[in-house]
User: Fold Synaptotagmin-like protein 2 from Erithacus rubecula.
Amino acid sequence: ESDTASEISFQFNRHKKTPSIGSHSSDMASVSSVSGSVLSVYSGDFGSVDAQGTVEFALDYDEKNREFQVHISQCKDLAVVDEKKGRSDPYVKTYLLPDKARMGKRKTSVKKRTVNPIYNEVLRYKIEKMVLLIQKLNLSVWHNDPLGRNSFLGEIEIDLASWDWSNRKLNWYPLKPRSLSAVNGVDHRGVMSLSIKYVPPGSLGKCPKNPPSGEVHIWVKDVKDLLQLRPSGVDSFVKCYVLPDTSKKSYQKTRVIKRDTNPVFNHTIVYDGFHTEDLKDACVELTVWDHEKLTNHFLGGIRLGLGTGLSYGISVDWMDSTQEEVAFWQEMMLAANEWIEGLLPLRSL
Assistant:
């Protein structure tokens, strides 16, 4: 059924007051806020202040060094976050969309106690021009709160395919409220074909292969219609974690399929150490990446779980499965020892 089989144990702190057991257990608190493999472009507080003010910046592409440059000059008349003290500590953050992963983020320094910060900083991306032109630049301004969640102050989004690259001058742009289309991330990234199966502990009777604890089997078959980042196609592979465990023991990946936007992986992963009650608190995260020498490029992913927003009683933002993903996981939970087949769209995580 597959060319590769990986087997790893699913072990982590199941109860908040119980100490971790085993060399590859991971502390729940360290992974409760976000997955170790994918970060959201929107990680902060949107409800506290209204977007206002303007930002001055310029864009340029250095053909010689193959570098995209965002010159952040300054902002004016930003919203006040701490009304009692009449202060904001703003910084500017940029992302190249649809990639919302960690390597797509750049940010300026923080300017304290001002609503008119001056930066004069250049944020740089090493990227081919043709890849850049199929992306959008999301530039947002945030108040830095070292003790809590950062507050959103406004943003602007630019389609780089239609940008006038002869315009290298600094210009002022009004900051807008958050873009719902960007938050929802509705864009076509491809479709993953896979099967999953849960084998409960002791369910195989006296069979020699009867697992002492439960197992989750994940069979990644293929992906169709991936984003084509180069004329030759895309060199893709799939990463897998069972969250909340983001340790090296949880991490598995397929081989790289080169120059193919419809790669066939046929890769099976087996996680043991599962108890039936773990299924409502765990989440299988599968992400697809384009392999490059210097940095891998996030293409899309899925999260299989109940999508409750909670894991072992702790609020987590990676427990965000879509209706399709939740239904797929529930079907597996109800049909022990049976392969459940699915065709799920990749999305921004």
In short: The first helix runs from residue 28 to 31. The mean pLDDT is 80. Helices lie at 28-31, 129-132, 180-184, 323-334.
